[in-house]
Specification:
Blueprint: E1 23-31, E2 34-43, E3 46-53, E4 60-66, E5 74-77, E6 83-92, E7 95-102, E8 108-120, E9 128-133, E10 137-141, E11 152-156, E12 162-166, E13 181-183, E14 186-189, E15 198-201
Antiparallel strand pairs: 1-2, 1-8, 2-3, 3-4, 5-6, 6-7, 7-8, 9-10, 10-11, 11-12, 13-14, 14-15
Length: 204
């Protein structure tokens, strides 16, 4: 797809082109007949993405890639980090249209997405889906508009409802879709220059 206007990202059938910048974007739409939600994180010309099917709400990671070498699309990764499907998308205004193709079966499905939120350099609030999740919960950073992480939303996969909001004692570092790290029954935020880390215990 080729992202024009403000998004520093490009996805196109013939190639991608974008300046190095930091941006976040959220999209909703369909792959085939299934409703999906997609989040993109673009920083220093590296695109990271994650999406889920709204029926299951289990995050599916997209393989990180440099914007200058994304000709032909971007890979979807399975739970073991192996490419499972290829997404090819063209961009028109604030919409994506393209195809999803399974590497295993060759099945191809149409993709239609509409951008619902966008922020450059954290200037506007964009909820960022986290790639890490548990069997029961998925996590969303509600906003990094302040330049750091001040809250983590815990959502139930069964219905998408907000279960609780975790608040670090001190603002944590923003690492896009990889801000939250899940280790068994604990959720961690790694420390970094100018911001503290945090650890929370999750329910069994």
């Amino acid at each position: 797809m080729r992202l024009r206007y403000h998004i520093a990202l490009a996805w196109a059938l013939s190639g991608w082109a974008a300046p190095a910048a930091a941006s976040y974007a959220a999209y909703t739409g369909t792959i085939g007949t299934e409703r999906v939600t997609l989040f993109l994180d673009d920083g220093n010309a590296i695109v990271r993405g994650v999406y889920f099917y709204d029926r299951y709400r289990t995050p599916i990671r997209l393989k990180p890639a440099a914007t200058h070498s994304l000709e032909g699309g971007i890979d979807e990764l399975d739970a073991d980090g192996i490419p499972a499907a290829r997404l090819r998308i063209t961009f028109d205004a604030v919409a994506f249209n393209g195809s999803w193709t399974s590497y295993r079966t060759g099945r191809m499905l149409p993709i239609h997405l509409i951008r619902t939120a966008y922020s450059s350099y954290g200037a506007e609030p964009v909820p960022i889906l986290q790639a890490a999740s548990t069997d029961r919960y998925y996590f969303v950073i509600p906003s990094v508009a302040t330049g750091d992480v001040r809250a983590i939303e815990v959502h139930d996969k069964s219905d998408g409802q907000l279960v609780r909001t975790l608040v670090p004692a001190s603002p944590a570092c923003d690492r896009g879709i990889d801000t939250v790290v899940v280790k068994k029954t604990h959720l961690r935020l790694s420390p970094g220059p100018g911001c503290a880390g945090a650890t929370f215990t999750l329910e069994p």
